[in-house]
Fold these 4 entries.
Entry 1:
Amino acid sequence: MADAMGAAQRDAEQANLAKSRFLAAASHDLRQPLQTLSLLRGVLARKIREGQTEEALALVVRLNETSDNMTSMLNAVLDINQIESGTVRADISDFSAAVLFERLVDDFAVVAAERGLSLRVVSSGLSLRTDPHLLEQMLRNLVSNALKYTRRGKVLMGCRRRGGMARIEIWDTGIGIPDDQLKAVFDEFYQLGNAARERKHGLGLGLTIVRRLGKLLGHAVAVRSWHGRGSVFSVEVPLSPGGMPPVLDLDVPEDETRAAHRAGAILVIEDDTAVRESLVLVLTEDGHRVVAAEDGPAASRLVAQGAARPDLILSDFNLPNGMNGLEAALTLREQLRREIPVVILTGDIATGTMRDIAARGIAQLNKPVEPAGLLAVIQGLLPDPAPGVPPPAPLREGPPVVFVVDDDADIRAALREVLEADGRIVETFGSSEAFLAAWRPGGAGCLIVDAYLPGMDGMELLRRLRAAGHELPAIAITGSGDVSIAVQAMKAGVSDFIEKPVGPDELLACVGRALEHGADLSRRVSRHDDAAGHLASLTPRQRQIMELVLSGHPSKNIAADLGISQRTVENHRASIMKKTGSRSLPALARLAVAADEAG
């Protein structure tokens, strides 16, 4: 027992020493580009002040290169940390070796040509069984290393069958590895011929990642080398037991990516003002509707007030005020009562943090993140675009149907219960998209829609229906006191709107008015034509005075504006009321609105 405890203690001490060496080397290599960025930033500011545009643009290019180098270093460190923390999991499938090889050769062809090297692949008809993306990461590192350490000649990639295994080999005619360093090349930050640790040669983590991914997948990784003449690295991968599977396309065609672009409502939670504003700008430019909060409690208040009904939450992990990004996201999921997609942005690479995020099935992106990468992840998580609005159809006979669209299942159930108790036929939907997919125009009825919905919100649904020429009467449900949404709803063509909370009597009265409003299209058209006929009997001066009266102007102001006497205005008003058959100003207003709608 004492021997076992002593061995465990020695292992722990070795692990601590290894971790210290790792952090010291990483700190050194990451501080170098930071120093460069700091110096270049000062020079750039001076060039801009002095109006030296060309020199400033050249410095911007150098800043971008340094930033890219630093991002590459951080990504390598994070890759190792994720493998160690257990958050990288293999997704095993069968695929063609040829597809993967061709992809790698295509991607590295330009690099090889720039260095005057030949990059070739030996065609293979073998089918592999492993995680294609993790294997690709291993091979990318091996090909990159081969090109980096080969000054002249070629790099060759191929695959040999060995029993039930495939042995993938990458050969090069590079500088080779001395026998006493064959094991050391897989250690963290170890680099042949780079004692000064020049950044252009990378961090020295590529082979470390290859070894760790090989251990994760159960793939043996080996190296043979002839100092001064070249090396061969190999990875042993199981063959597919079922023969050649369908070709696995590891790329998403660019045209399909564009065609499938999704736009949604995104709630951003970020306490850093500059980062928050940048995220809002990037997402808005990509066509999303964005609401932002500085912490979890603020985001929760936005949801409670109805100001945010997101399709996706994008949150920093380290947030102030007692709630980290993961906790905030889970709280909001509970509040919204649905498994809304979440992306956590974090610079925290602690093993526990990464495991907690992965255990919840939540996407994680490590800072810094490129806009293209962030937008690609969001595209993969947002719901599918909404179906189109069907064209208008002739009216069909049958009882009217009340369509309820609300993402809250309890509210849908309560509305259905009240309406069905009143003898109404009710159909409920959890989203605008679901409503459009099922609804067929032509029958009598009305629509009750929540103004705030994930995906296509209520206002957008109403606008689409109106633009398509539909006469379906609609009632919008808004938050209490939400005047701006009520105005938007009226502009979008609703016949009425309800403020939460709503009682059964008010709900039934609204539905009654809406159904009456849409009961007979032909009768309404006739009424509109009638109104237009009445107004046609007015003289141009009388129409002018009517418009001013209905705009709320008193007679003396109208007289002054038109340069006539107040008595003349009063005579015109009396004549207008007589010709139109209106007994009051509200009746005249209804007639004018009806005539406008007819036009």
Entry 2:
Amino acid sequence: MASLLLPAPASIAQPVRDNPSAASLPSLGDGQGMSIAAERRLGDRIARDIYRDPDYLDDPVIGDYLQALWQPLLGAARDRGDVAPELAERMAWELMISRDKRVNAFALPGGYMGVNLGLLAMTDRPEELASVMAHELSHVSQRHIARMMTREDRMAPWMMGAMILGALAAGANSQVAGAAIAGSSAVAAQSQLNFSRDMEREADRVGFGVLTGAGFDGQGFVSMFDKLQQASRYDDGSFPYLRSHPLTGERIADMRARLPQGPAAAPGSSAGPVNPAPVAIGSSIMGAAGLRLDLPSGGTRGTLGPMAGGSLPMPARTVHALLSARARVLAENSPDRQRAWLANGQVASASPGDRYAAALSALRLGQRDLALDLAQRLRTAVSAEARPTVDALLLELLLAPTAAAASLPAPQSTLLAELRDQALGGTSRASVLLGAQAALATGQPQRAVSRLQAWVALQPRDALAWQTLSRAYAVQGQSLRAIRAEAEARAAHLDFAGAADRFKVAQGLPAAQRSADAMELAIVDSRRREVEALLRESVREESDR
């Protein structure tokens, strides 16, 4: 999935309690027009295509980390009144990751937000990344795409969706982007995506309040602006965010004016969020469901549940460095760059992030044993708060396709069993999925099934979990359940046609296989009817365009 080249939506003017001058700003909309339901349908339509894009990335480790930032921001937006109860209930509030190495983030209709790996890779501290997410969250919470479409009657929802998807598909090539827009019959409306300076300023104001309300240091906004301003001097197309969110001296000055005065406000003085606490990626400390706002404590997708109020522990700088390194390597396909990272991470003065990048680069270069050695040495060197992140990497290395668990040397086999048991006891998405994969690799499919069944009962929109559960059922010879899990994975990505097809296949299994699990068959029958109803609705919406 390419970066969104067109300007991300900007927010409407609302009273901002922490800004006395807010009342003097122009109103950007009256709140009437496109319904929340219509905006959500438009967002779902775009998301369905993004799920199918080769650049869409479901990386549980990075997903958990982004959620550790996203959840407190959502909670702060709710507490401030930026996210009204109806929006909290009916929007998707879903993060989507692109493996694109260019620096960008983008807001989409209906509560979806995209983050490029390149954005995570270029940030040094969690509050910098959180500042961009807060800005985009403010765009989403204020429903500016819907308001823009309301202002311009000729901008039909399908036209807007076509324009956004055209821009996503076009990447950095402006000529291709122009052709995609023209092909969507929306070229005349392209200017409607160029949001005003007032809108961007308000997104800054609201985003700053959300960022600090979530407990992050507001310095993150300023340091991120500084990075982008420096990048603008030599941008070669690697910073699409600069085109969709052009910086002005006024915006930068406004952010600086919002910071408290004194030594604590000095640039670069912040070590992370206010009252920082460690986040354990890949351990039991994280409760959010990877890429979705499904909450193990009982919240459902699209709602701001108990954990969204900022109670999740916030990442420390070392953890951020490790995940930034992960993003950098996953976004890069050049063996020369990977070899350079491998060499850089082996020098005595290498930072933890450099060592992490070296280990992951070694794996991608086919040097698994070297990767394991580097990761194990990193594990002994990092603090306790960062160790779960390294443990997740070690599990990934031990589960690499180049290795068969049965043929691992005794020390590696012992380590795999230790990390498997630790992960299966965790509650983070990365823990659950890596632990289940390790259970399958070590010939314990029932442990994978038990853990994944409990997970998808609370996280029914987790496609990767359903796919892994399907593999576990297949190993056990439970064909009906395996096919049903495949169908649920497709439904989770809004592929209702594919899901309906798999449910039909499950219903068409030989009678002996169907009758052996009457309860599961009843679930299949019910879910097929539900999915087919959703499919008919989506087809009707397409025909109404």
Entry 3:
Amino acid sequence: MKSQLQSLIDIALQQLQQQQVIPAEWINKSTLERTKDNTHGDWASNLAMVAAKPAGLKPRDLAEKIVAALPTNDLIQKVAIAGPGFINFYLQAQAEFAVLNQILEQQHNFGRSQYGQQQKVQVEFVSANPTSSLHVGHGRGAAYGMTVATLLEAIGYQVEREYYVNDAGRQMAILATSTFLRYLQLNGAEFKFPSNAYKGDYIFDIAKAVIATEGGKWQQDSVAVFADVPADEIKNEAGEVIYGDKEAHIDGLIENSRKLLGDAGYDVFFRAALDSILGDIKDDLADFGVTYDQWFSEKTLADDGSIDKVVKILQDKGHIYEKGGALWFKSTDFGDEKDRVVVRDNGQATYFASDIAYHLNKYERGLDKIVNIWGSDHHGYIARVKAAITALGLDANKLEVLLVQFVTLWRGDVQVQMSSRSGQFVTLRELREEVGNDAARFYYVSRKSEQHIDFDLDLAKSQSKDNAVYYIQYAHARICRVFEKLAEKQWTFTIADGQNALHALSSDVERELVKKLAAYPEVVQQSALAYEPHQLSNYLKDLASHFHGWYNDHIVLHENTDTRNARLLLSTTVKQVLANGLGLLGVTAPSKM
């Protein structure tokens, strides 16, 4: 309906521009929106107010000219001018009900469009270090990223979902060394496990798997492993750390382990840890309904020379200088707060250098839009990445970085702490097992991504009106039950019966419900373009509330045939839109609850 009304407005505008009432070069930036008050009609345009100044007319005077230039249309009951110059459209009843036939015809495609015209968009999300299982914070990024990608697809974009696997760098070295040290302990070695290593029980499991396949082949003397390694932690009698350097301690163990094992031996522990944890992450996300088109390995950027290539490009462009034996990128020339190291004084590339190479790779794929979804702690990283992109001569505006705030999990009045090194954290898998995929997916996207979430476990599991996902799913199940009761009564209903009885939908509540259904495509498009799934979740809550209120006050299986058929048709369309919206959020639409 909106597109039809907008076409009429465009025709009127073109006519007034041809008549030089409005300048021909004026660009229309007016809006056409649904009214919030039925007394103001169904739709309202602010064209007269935004075009009044360039036209040199008072808004109401221009509104009269616009209304006079509007083509006649059988769907419009009347057009009125209100307030400072709003143009309000009142639709015929059959025009309002036309959306019901559209829903029935398009079914699961209702709300989808080709707005994006198959432009290529990449959405990269989660990309957590494969050093432990995903925790509840990662879960929010997973639900948000998957839903953003799904919404973009729904409005016609060609979407590529990607996970950037950070399988290079110091954290992976700590993981591999932690696995090796547990391997030594399982084979009888005795020593104090480093405070800065990965301590979770899953490290024991990986080490046991190495023993199962390799036996004691890689056993080393623990004295040699700890030789000349700086002290970790030395505590006094009060338990206070009085001496030690835990970072230097773990770095020394990494260096010694590499030397003793050689490349082949060290790779055994590296691959065992990476494959085990990455496999767990893939399974966890798949079970959460989150899938990817590509898992991109950071390690390949070093292996294929991509990092050296991008550093050389920046050097040739004059954006790299040497200081203290390291290579620095002049990121301050492009708006960053300070310059950044890309190659350390030991010749090793930094994570930032890998990230520059990774983004160059993205740009070389011919994408129209690149969307990165990062944790809010990466806020300061945006400027340096965009600086590097600009320095490479690329359009930094093509990159959109969306930040996801932290999640605080509560059990009663107790906040659960998380630490991936110690292994004492609540995993995404544990959360899903406790509250279910549906509640987790819904509540993760029910607020703006940059807003903090206090995840209420008790609410997520409750079967009440206060639990939004339950309330929405219950509306869908309730409609399914209506049709079960219809069959039990041995009454018949066809779509044609309902279409022929639409005149029976005469109450204001029913007309409001129809309007709510008609708004769905706009909500989907706006949610996608703004990267705000919460707009859709809020819409579904409102739609469910409208339905429950109507259902409680109206008998759907009415004795009067026309009334019954009309209400069954309305219920059918509500059920379809609920299912469509829940599907985009990655939430099921159950037939029974």
Entry 4:
Amino acid sequence: MKRLGIPLIILASLALGCGSGSSRSDGLFGSFGAGSNGRTITIKNVALDQLQVGGDRPDTLDVEGFNAQGVRVFGPVRFPLATSNAIPNIPPEVVRLELDFLRNNGFRLFRADAGLTSSNSEIVPLMQLTAPNDSEFRITANGAGGFSLSRQIIGDAPSPSDVRSKLDATNMVFKGVCYSPAPINFSNKDAPAVGDLFWDSFKAGPDDIFDWGALFLDFYDPNVGQSRADIKTIRNMGCNSLRLYSAISYHLNDDGTFPDLSAPTTHRFSHKKFLDACWNNNDRPIYVLVDIPMPTECFRRYLKDAEDIPAGPDRDRIKAQRAAKIAWWEANLRATVEDLSSHPAVIGFNIMNEQDGNEWSHPNQGAGPDDQESQFFYAQSIKYASIVKGVDNTKLCGWAFHDSPALVKFASNFPTNGLKYFEQLKQYFDYYGINSYQKTSLDSIGGKGQPGSYADLPDNMALPVLFTELGWPATGHDNSNQLIDTPATQAATAQTLGTVVPQVYQNKLYMGCFYFEFADEWWKQDVGLPYTWDPGNPDGGRPNGFGDEEGFGLFSVARQGGRPNQDDNYITFGPDPKAPFGPKGPKLPFDKITGRQPIIDALKAAFSAVQDS
């Protein structure tokens, strides 16, 4: 064991257990577990400046207390880590304190175990560098066309506890939301971030690049006010997972060109702060499914610009540019999986979102024939899935595909010679991800005997279905065709949700769903800048009769503090760059979210009815 300039101790073997999910908040304080009759113990962290590993330092002290029988009777509670922390209200029966030293208020770096006597008023803990947690997942067939997802947490175990262990779980299902906190006037498809708003702050030359933590973390700062704390909101809705559309190691240049990944000045983005908050020291963790936003060129062989130009320098130049773009994104895919797969909050990766189409992924509505376009599409999909699994085969891998029975028909019947495409994908995929918006029934996807149903795939092709998107607009239109968001439109959407979402958990073929989406995004209609809240087209398959891409949120978004919608500055650095937070990151005041309560309540009810082991 490496010594850190401070005394270290070897902890006794701990019984496997965890903290109660209801006793800890996402903020700095949880349940104290005692009244005013308890003791105050001062923790003297005398070697605080030496507590670091791999460049990371703890910033939070997590405290739990146990009685002589090893039952937790105090905490967990959290405090900002200081050289001296006074812990009040510790019950007299506590004979041992367990102290976790956390990075970003959520990921354990060090641990100390301290015995207490009735005379204790101050202790100097002896810290040990802990084995970091990671998570491993496996999907297995359980007979009768069903599947089970098992989860194992490796690394140092949680504390002994009077609640059941979370170290190993079977029959875990996804109860999640799609999360993209895009501010008004921000497009997720634009450079440089391509939708990634989850990175850690860093210094680039003389400037600091600040994170978006004020949207998803839970803190109060006098310069910022109360953060929006989206992760806490997601956890309190009964979710155990969320899906990101982008969290990538390398961003594009501001002009959309590609930085040189071999250059020492090219920044490699990290995402520890966001993931640590999701992990929450394995107390009601939120597992994160990460999309890699691979572009169309990575899946489509045909490129009209090049094919229509006569052979020569122009065609060669266009093809070279396309090849360079594909290579850059493939390198970014590998780097991102390398960087994120070791975090316990990460459950896996989607290699794409909706990069499919009748011309290349399931030609002629699934009837074929197979051609160069489809061959390229599946070869690329298999290649990217093999990259993910080659880096870490303990994380899940799949794609997010449109709800398309034609895909199932095509990929289960072609190519005519050799392994079918679904057979090839099964070697690397753990699930088939589907973005679906069915209004009444999911039988067309997982019902027996339905044309193009996943339920009828033979064993050599069968995988579980994960609804990577499942949702409906909360909005309707008035007589002038403007978006409206009323109790009536919300009630109609809540009714549809209450009908369809429970079906996900009644079919053993399905591994759960991610509700689309957490909050409205004001760029989905793509009618140009400045983005406004734009109405969609008539669609009888939606609860309120319209396909309003910008009205799917469980929460609506709005400017506040008099800031206009047309303000397309997203970042502000504030007058004092040395302030602890200062108005940095999202421009203040950041967008306000307002819950559509009937829809939220319907989702919570659907999730709470499902046992989450």
